[in-house]
Design a protein that fits this description.
The chain has 367 residues and is α/β, with parallel strands linked by helices. The chain is built from eleven helices and 16 strands. Strands 2-3-1-4-10-11 form a six-stranded mixed sheet, with helices on both faces.
Length: 367
């Protein structure tokens, strides 16, 4: 009996053989849906039993978590130890040999955990070894650094991207603007808000048929591909920003460096000489999109040493209170805010008010 890996290989071969045109688009969509299903089975096998993997769990610390991905000998370890050594409050950790967490760096008042992800390349796709657990950790990261050798960046970049995409991690993408709703009866209803170049009712039905769905409402609010629709149906995709870190720039010329600088999401560095680390950290801060809020006790100066860092898109006073302590929200009368999010300094606001980076907040409780 063919294993899942063999089935995936067979489908990929058939997709490579099939010509891409209007007539075959529905068939290709069905193959892509099959492929997505098998890949999901690889990550989470159907059977409940089976032997357990070795322990691979890393405690979450700090305000954000960054995963480092890369082939061996691209200077990943040097970069990690230099970053953690230069900007770190803790230099060394004791961890198992399965994973390397060189430390936590403090940057602009936020604690950021750096996490090496070993074995994400070797055999992870086939579900071998620790691949599955490593991917599980990668999916929890707020940002991924793909470390590449500047002398051979493109080949490695494609392999790593393909590996991560296969596990439902989408790099530097936003979720597709598709509304998908299952229903009891009524067949498949497809509504296109904008003209579609790839999807039509026939191909949508083929993809849904692969998932045994015969009744659904689908609204496409942008020009979508088969992959976008499959991502929405699967529902287990994570969208993570990613920075390509091109290491070993001491081995190339200035002209080549100028060209590299024009590539989007790229930061050229030299881990060994500690060149361009400030640029890397600045870009990292932009991509993490964290909001620092300073607290101000009544009758005292604001505490600028330890900001409250809000991670999610929810940057309201309510989220700020919950970050401090769950009981504060019940006692909240109103808040006084200084900063760019308000018109007057200070201004009285309620719990729905949206904060901006480096605002100062004073909580007034009910008596």
């Amino acid at each position: 009996m063919a294993t899942i890996v063999d089935k995936i290989k067979a489908i990929e071969d058939e997709m490579a053989r099939t010509q891409k045109n209007k007539a075959t688009s529905a068939h290709l969509g069905m193959l892509k849906a099959k492929l997505a299903k098998y890949k999901r089975e690889l990550i989470t096998p159907k059977g409940g039993g089976g032997e357990k993997g070795e322990g691979f769990d890393v405690a979450k610390t700090g305000d954000a978590r960054i995963g480092f991905v890369g082939f061996p000998s691209v200077g990943k370890s040097t970069l990690l130890s230099n970053l953690a050594g230069v900007y770190s409050e803790v230099a060394a950790y004791e961890f198992t040999t399965l994973t390397t967490v060189p430390g936590v760096i403090r940057y602009k008042g936020a604690k950021i955990q750096l996490l090496d992800l070993p074995g994400i390349i070797e055999g992870a796709k086939d579900g071998k070894g620790r691949g599955r657990q490593v991917i599980a950790v990668a999916r929890t990261c707020k940002l991924i650094f793909i470390v590449l050798d500047v002398l051979k960046p493109l080949g490695d970049k494609k392999i790593i991207e393909h590996e991560l995409e296969g596990f439902g991690i989408r790099l530097n993408k936003s979720p597709p603007n598709i509304t998908f709703r299952k229903k009891e009866k009524g067949g498949v209803n497809l509504t296109c808000v904008v003209p579609q170049s790839e999807l039509d009712l026939n191909s949508v039905k083929q993809i849904l048929g692969e998932y045994r769905i015969s009744n659904a409402d689908i609204i496409l609010k942008e020009d979508c591909t088969c992959d976008d629709l499959i991502d929405v149906i699967e529902g287990n995709r994570v969208y993570i920003p990613c920075i390509y870190v091109l290491n070993k720039i001491d081995q190339i010329s200035i002209e080549e460096l100028d060209i590299i600088y024009k590539i989007p999401h790229c930061v050229p560095i030299s881990a060994h000489h500690k060149w361009n680390f400030d640029d890397l950290l600045e870009k990292m801060w932009d991509y993490l999109n964290l909001t620092r809020i300073y607290t101000k006790p009544k009758g005292q100066l604001p505490d600028f040493s330890a900001p409250v860092v809000l991670k999610e898109d929810n940057k309201s006073i309510e989220a700020f209170c919950n970050n401090l302590h769950k009981s504060i929200l019940k006692e909240l009368k109103y808040a006084l805010v200084w900063g760019s999010s308000v018109k007057y300094q200070p201004q009285r606001v309620g719990k729905e008010h949206t904060l901006q980076d480096e605002d100062i907040v004073q909580i007034i409780k009910k008596h």
